[in-house]
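Supplementary Methods, section 5.1.

A reviewer requested that the exact input to the structure prediction be made available. We therefore reproduce it here, unchanged from the version used in the analyses.
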Amino acid sequence: MTLPSFAELDALPTEELRERAFAVARKHHDIKFIWSVVKHLPDSDDVAELDGAPNSIGPTIDEVVALWRELRGRGGYEEHGYGEQEPLLRAAFIDYLQKHQ
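The structure derived from this sequence is encoded token-by-token as follows.
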């Protein structure tokens, strides 16, 4: 199986990139990656409520994914995308997929 090229990944919608990157991160139990993405979302003030330090007693992957879904439910991310952070998030998703698939 060949890995998708940068161009193939870049052609995907941001939400598809996010779904793929989160699936890989969950498979590898990589809370650090998911946490870094959540912290860059607009309206992510609730992130401060969780201790995001990897290797600490803090959020589990499922808790961070639940927070992601909650934040996405606010402010209409479904309709309006990821705001000003979209280019940064797309780059993070593509980079992660290229390094960890």
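The longest helix spans residues 86-100. These observations are discussed further in the main text.
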